[in-house]
Amino acid sequence: MISNTGKLAGRTLFITGASRGIGKSIALKAAKDGANVVLAAVNEAVSKFGGIDIVVNNASAISLTPTLDTDMKRYDLMNNINTRGTFLVSKACIPFLKKSSNPHILNLSPPLSMKPKWFQSNLAYTLSKYGMSMCAMGMAEEFKNDGIAVNALWPKTAIHTAAIEMLTGGEGFNVSRKADIMADAAYVIFCKDSKSITGRFCIDETILREEGITDFTPYACNPEWKDKLMLDFFLDEEDFQSKSHTVFDPTKKPTQNSKDLNVIFSAIRANLSADLVRKTTAIYQFNITGDNPGTWFLDLKTGNGALEKGKPSQAADAILTMEANNFFDMFSGKLKPATAFMMGKLKIDGNLQVAMKLEKLMSSLKSKL
């Protein structure tokens, strides 16, 4: 882990969204170094501390919903906090950053990728996060001659936050790292000469490896799972294939044949019950692609439940689209829906939370396959 050196002592850091999670960890790391940490009111910060040296745009709103399920109030919230908020806070602070001897702006946003899979299931959220990334890219060039470093930072793996717990149905601890890794990576960036690092889309682990860190076990929430961490949203596993960047990818399995899927279907039918219907009350549609394409539906809303080929007679609450091998792994307990979704291996249309309810059924089938 990265030790504090005191290089930020006396410097003033303005950060948004620092009440919990990654923002709180970054703020505490800077404060431990002796920095003045400000959570609001730019002018008051300047009046009290004489200027601003570092800006962290961390505040973010998230709603992983497809276009037709995204109401405009939620769309506006994400864009106002993520894109507009980043632009506005940076704009307000830049006049003071120009007077700093080592000014930095750091946006907590992902590297830009134009792959459709990052847009198909949650377009509104992706637009808002990419807006933050484009602010970093544009401002880095715009204020390069002023010596202001503008970069983006994103985690390689899932970070144990409230958002991850929501996505994984409370099962995110084992597959996540602590927010400390993001705080350490941000600290490394802040300590660098602003003229030497700007316009970069930084990944936390990569930044720390550049500093000589090779043991990332202390950052794992559960050290026993350090080699089975979930790759974070917006990152492609093919970008992390070297031995030093091992990330568990449970979707990398040999393609299952139709007989395997029939085993899954039989196990699901054997576990249907009125009690399961009462606890779930939802209809699922599975669009299976790949070598054995087909459409199936699981009715957990009426009677004792049913699994049939084709589309349901009434609208499905959640439509899950995936390749056959991923379907097999999900229902045999080898792959969590949240993991598949975040890695772009599973497309969900409809109610995301309803889709995640399937995880308990999937876990119950594991011992029967």
From TrEMBL:
Claim: Glycosyltransferase is one of the keywords in the record: no
Main subcellular location of this protein, as a coarse class: mitochondrion
UniProt family annotation: Belongs to the short-chain dehydrogenases/reductases (SDR) family.
Subcellular location(s) per record: Mitochondrion; Peroxisome
Protein name: Hydroxysteroid dehydrogenase-like protein 2
NCBIfam families hit by this protein: PRK08278.1 (NF006133)
GO molecular function: oxidoreductase activity
Keywords, sorted A to Z: Mitochondrion, NADP, Oxidoreductase, Peroxisome
SCP2 domain boundaries: 271-362
A cellular component term, taken from the record's GO annotations: peroxisome
